[in-house]
Amino acid sequence: MRWEEALIKVFSKSMASTDSADNSSHDCNKEQNDQTDDCTEKFCHTLLDLPWQDVLWTKVLPYLSISDCFYLRQVNKEYKKMIDDYFISCSKLDLTDVADLSASCRQLTYLNLSGCTWLHNVGLVTIAYKCYFLEFLNINNCSNVTDEGIRTLVFHCQKMTTIKCKNVYQLTNYGVELMVKACPMMTKLDLRGCYRLTDRCIKLILEHGWNVRELKVKNCQSISEQSLFDIKDKIKVDVNSNTSSKNYFPKVFLQL
Length: 256
Prior knowledge:
Keywords: Ubl conjugation pathway. The protein is an alpha/beta fold. The chain is built from eleven helices and six strands.
């Protein structure tokens, strides 16, 4: 293990931890705390004084897990800024261990996993059991997610207002029904490219999604334009010219 990794891990976890061992002597405990605070203050200054971009971002932080980075981020405002700037600078970030991420970020309200093809139902279940305060979730192009993963997620994260499921090909009407029933505050749904959805999906949203104000269903070939026409006064809908229309026959005017 590199010395940078060991150093940051020990420091970040000790600073983020809120539990402390009970000491028999109050005076001794106070003296130890004072010494720890002095050492920590010096150490913080020394660590933050290192060049962020040339040293910390290239030789220290890449060796830490996402969990360790978030522990370090909790220390103070300066560390938060340093970690945030590091994340912004990353061209590639490995989030394959969703369990590690969700366990460290229990207060998450916004989570973007768009394009994470490795995400399965197990990952969604892990998020569901840890991130109760989730309000925004983007799982666009996560083609391995099914209705079962959605079911567990929405019943544990009922504060969600936005779910993006573009090209989640295994999503069915049942999954959408679970979303709108379990999450009464849902306002935006992105279902583009979910070809298993039918007109029944629109009916379910209309009946149970009382607060849904924006719906995207482009490239859902089994949803007819007629069903979308019926809800256009209540919900803002994107309509794709490629959407099949079984029940809708537009008027044709012939000029003779």
